[in-house]
Design brief:
Number of strands: 10
Radius of gyration: 18 Å
CATH topology: Rossmann fold
Oligomer: single chain
Strand content: 25-35%
CATH superfamily: P-loop containing nucleotide triphosphate hydrolases
CATH class: Alpha Beta
Number of helices: 7
Helix content: 25-40%
Distance between the termini: 20 Å
């Protein structure tokens, strides 16, 4: 079976000469459709660099990145932007919502970029908010929502365009323990019930425990890769 995403011998070098740092020192990683993968490791281990490459936010110095068998490195900047827009979803630690716009309007934004008409945007937005338990909050602005609700809106925004994979970067970092578990239970149910592929970066063991697979980074290399 062809992996959804695959890195082969990927390196990422920053600086040059004595200041050269290998953020990634030649890694191989494959993620299949429907997997829930937690990427872990201490600060500076390479996990965030790996996530940025997978999300087409950065390019490797060496090696290859394949998305459904297509060589991402051979794509133009415009093609990578289209890949991001149509196939990748993102959830960030800081929510990244527009504070003065409603939950529904925040979900409509990625659909506007895709040329979806207004009526269809509103239908998709409301449907997706209902999937994350916010059917009755569609007209609340982000500023009127709790931190946990804001992260639910952010997850809904990542889902609304039906991506092939969602990248979640420390999605519980700004939440208390109870809200963190709520968000992780939501992500796990989306993975199990909808078959959503999720790649999650976290440094918290209990958060990583929700994933079916844990990949640990150290010094720019994959130290371990275990499935439950």
């Amino acid at each position: 079976m062809q992996p959804l995403i695959e890195l082969r011998r990927v390196t990422k070098i920053y600086g040059s000469g004595e200041a050269e740092v290998a953020a990634l020192a030649g890694i191989d990683l494959a993620v299949n459709d429907g997997e829930f993968v937690a990427v872990m490791g201490p600060s500076g281990s390479g996990k965030s660099t790996c996530m940025n490459i997978l999300g087409c936010l950065d390019t490797p110095t060496g090696g290859n990145y394949y998305f459904r068998g297509a060589d991402v490195g051979a794509m133009s900047r415009e093609q990578r932007a289209l890949l991001r827009r149509h196939y990748l979803g993102f959830v960030f630690q800081g929510f990244n919502l527009l504070k003065r716009t409603t939950a529904l309007e925040n979900l409509e934004l990625p659909l506007i970029y895709r040329g979806v008409k207004s009526g269809e945007r509103k239908r998709l937005g409301r449907e997706t908010l209902a999937q994350v338990g916010l059917a009755d909050r569609w007209d609340h602005t982000a500023a009127e929502l709790s931190g946990g609700q804001q992260q639910r809106v952010a997850i809904a925004r990542a889902l609304v365009s039906s991506p092939s994979v969602v990248f979640a970067d420390e999605p519980t970092g700004n939440l208390d323990t109870a809200k963190s578990h709520e968000i992780m239970q939501l992500l796990r149910s989306l993975n199990q019930e909808r078959g959503l592929t999720i790649v999650l970066v976290t440094h918290e063991e209990d958060v990583a425990g929700y994933a079916g697979r844990q990949v640990r980074f150290r010094d720019g290399l994959i130290e371990s890769d275990t499935r439950r």
